[in-house]
Amino acid sequence: MFQLNENFQKLPGSYLFSTIGKKVNAYTQANPDKKIIRLGIGDVTQPLAPAIIEALHKAVDEMAAAETFHGYAPDLGYEFLRNAIVSDYKERGCDISPDEVFVSDGAKSDSGNIQEIFSVNNRIAVCDPVYPVYVDSNAMAGRTGDYNKETEMWSNVIYMPCTMENDFVPEFPKETPDIIYLCLPNNPTGTTITKEQLCEWVDYANRVGAVIIYDAAYEAYISEDNVAHSIYECEGAKTCAIELKSFSKNAGFTGVRLGYTIVPKELKSGDVSLNAMWARRHGTKFNGAPYIVQRAGEAVFSREGKAQLKEQVAYYMKNASEIKTGLKDAGYTVFGGVNAPYIWLKTPERMTSWEFFDYLLENANVVGTPGSGFGPSGEGYFRLTAFGSYENTLAALERIRKL
Ligand code: MLT
Fold first, then answer.
1. 82-107 per-position pLDDT tens digit
2. Quick check: pTM over 0.85?
3. CATH topology of domain 53-302
4. Test site for ligand 1: of 15, 45, 108, 131, most ligand atoms within 8 A of the Cβ
């Protein structure tokens, strides 16, 4: 008789964005005449940049001729893409070699899968609130202990609260973690820490023998000079950090799917190389991102691609600025939106995050994301994304102002 992975039974509800999707669908079915504006999930709305479209077309044509056709991609990804990624790191002064780059179908998969190479006995530390995949994937693996419905916390997870009281800067935990997840600029708060503060985390991890899983998905949105674009800008990071990168937010690949993970060769546990372990795992369980998509990824790093994507990022950051100013003028307390495309606000009149979600959906027909969905310290907060169109962003703001 087969047995199930009981860890799945411990997971509360469904994945955050699936729950939101179901709620919004139910509302639209009951109110077909209402025009909903979605500023919930961080999904992009602008079309792919011309340089990327051109690369895609060219690669599709190559697939139509036997001489230029491509089958399985190499395990780690095509060299042309890994070399482009390495050059990009070099421009930031980070010395990464192509065999430290693992191309994948997106940072979400990597952020969920990376925990597999660590012992189930490891203890994880997460910022609270944070992107739910880190905790959920560790819960599925049986690393998080038991879930307490009252506190909405796992017994074996170290939570590092990031709230307005500490300027959203995580403090070193009292108990020593083995694996530390940092997503900076942060999803969902849209806030970040300085390079100096990040380098203190690197020193801390090296000191206590922890590994940092560093999710840099929103790096392209950094506008302040004192913020690091990669954890490898910090000395010593190659002995303690794995970096996850996405093409979704900087290049609009949410529906195209492409990402990469950097596992430095210096990162070791005793004699065992994490790079070799991840290579083994990648080779066994993954057959490569499509050739066409990897060519599109290469175009992201081309001169034209970079210029076009800078404009796209500016477009979304204009939305962020409109939301931030508009909400402030309307009396809301708001954070983020300077180095990230997310605005994090205090819910008005002490509403819970989900109460405010319902209130906004029903009265303004605007969808956002309840802060508590990202962790217990997110309660009483709410996230709006700047990834909508400019017109929809302004329309949503107008509706919220009128409430
Ligand atoms: C979010 O809205 O938090 C993200 O877009 C979800 C994701 O990247 O998977």
1. 999 999 999 999 999 999 999 999 99
2. yes
3. Aspartate Aminotransferase; domain 2 (3.40.640)
4. 131
